[in-house]
Fold this sequence. Notes:
The chain is an alpha/beta fold and about 500 residues long. It contains 16 helices and 21 strands. The strands form 7 sheets. Strands 9-19-18-16-15-12-11-10 form an 8-stranded parallel beta sheet. Strands 6-20-21 form a 3-stranded mixed beta sheet, with no helix packed on it. Strand 18, helix 11 and strand 19 form a beta-alpha-beta unit. Helix 4 crosses helix 14 and helix 11 crosses helix 14. The N and C termini lie far apart (about 65 Å). The site of one iron/sulfur cluster has 15 residues, from loops.
Amino acid sequence: MAINFLYPEYEIMRNYDRCIACRACERQCANGAHEFLADKENLICDDSKCVNCHRCVSLCPTRALKIITSGNTYKNNMNWNGKTINEIYRQAESGGVLLSSMGNPENYPVYFDKILLNASQVTNPSIDPLREPMETKVFLGAKPRDIERDLAGRIVNNLPPQLFLSMPVMFSAMSYGSISYNAHESLARAAEETGIYYNTGEGGLHEDFYKFGGNTIVQVASGRFGVHPEYLNSGAAIEIKMGQGAKPGIGGHLPGAKIVGDISRTRMSPEGSDAISPAPHHDIYSIEDLRQLVYSLKEATEYKKPIIVKIAAVHNVTAIASGIARSGADIIAIDGFRGGTGAAPTRIRDNVGIPIELALAGIDKRLRDEGIRDNVSVVIGGSIRSSADIIKAIALGADCVYIATAALIALGCHLCRSCHGGKCNWGIATQAPEYVKRLNPDAGYKRLVNLMNAWRHEIKEMMGGMGINSIESLKGNRLMLRGVGLNEKELEILGIKHAGE
Length: 501
Ligand code: SF4
Ligand code: SF4
Ligand code: SF4
């Protein structure tokens, strides 16, 4: 008899007094965790198949279901905890690399939670955002250092191409293939309605979404999937993806099973063959090489589109950002080590990279010290969870933030961290038509619009409380921040004082 070393992570609790055997849970669970026994007219469940996505819980008409963390324990200790033991059993069984979805869940400090905001009291009065104008608009792109005038004294408009946003938030890269058609449609429509941008990721742009081009950032990654002149010219900006926070230093891999139909055509990649993005761009080994690609893309789009260079936050990120700011790029995007992903090797995701807060503070300071801060705008991402995180990021020096996980949660994601399995019960990280249709893009886009409107309102309230009436005045304004429970070195890198100072 085979020994089963792995205990289920969760237990499905069914209250049989409430259950009316409607079988909705059986139909809803893509993992087949519920089963109806016709002879007993009752349901049983297989806990080992449950990923705790809460689909069945949410749709049970009688609230008969509850998912709890399994009470089964290994004889673990601080050094050998249950998760570590479990992972070794899994690798001893499979012989393979462990894969995970979404962001790094390990217990590293979340610096945003150790930073507090200021509020005006007697002097520098606060501003009431309901009665007084507040500016949340942002322009992203290189800014000229001097104002030039012609002989008649008129201002010469020599502004490089800019992205104009109604608020300092964009939906970050999620490829068609890693997320569904309906998820993409929701993001695209919400970006258009709220006056921000969404990002194709490295999967190309489905022909149905060209109409949202004015609110689309098209990505060029090392695999060059779906990249062609029409694609480059369809978006409002082009993003060169050099790295990603969830998997710095390695490429991407979309299994052949997901490269079917529209996805294969959009990616310009044969059906059924794995789409592998190499770890490096094979034409980039220096900042000079990066500059070549930046200018090739500018040439291809007649110098009308800002070029974004996206990197992961790693140890020497300030020097890398300084190089990018000199490469001709208009915007730098930095992805912190808590950034989400559809699939990444667990060891890389959980052990590589640095917190986005430290990376951002270091980059902003270095670019200012070198007098090149205006060469580029800085966009950061990697687990921005709320409007408070946005305010803190702007005060630490960001021009704007990228969100992805928060946007997916707005669409219904329950963070079950099983995207790599391709059976997302909420119709987001899946291509199976029967699951994709569970996400209604009409409802999805409205939920995203609601989230953006709510955050915009909160941003105005927090800025008003500080007596600041525009994002531009908040940018890099570290006097508005104080640290709690941080050591001298951390405060020094963040460039903020401790609370009470
Ligand atoms: S959905 Fe709820 S009521 Fe229906 S069979 Fe499942 S547990 Fe019972
Ligand atoms: S995987 Fe989701 S739908 Fe299936 S039993 Fe678990 S919580 Fe319910
Ligand atoms: S997108 Fe779907 S599969 Fe991925 S974490 Fe969210 S609910 Fe789970």
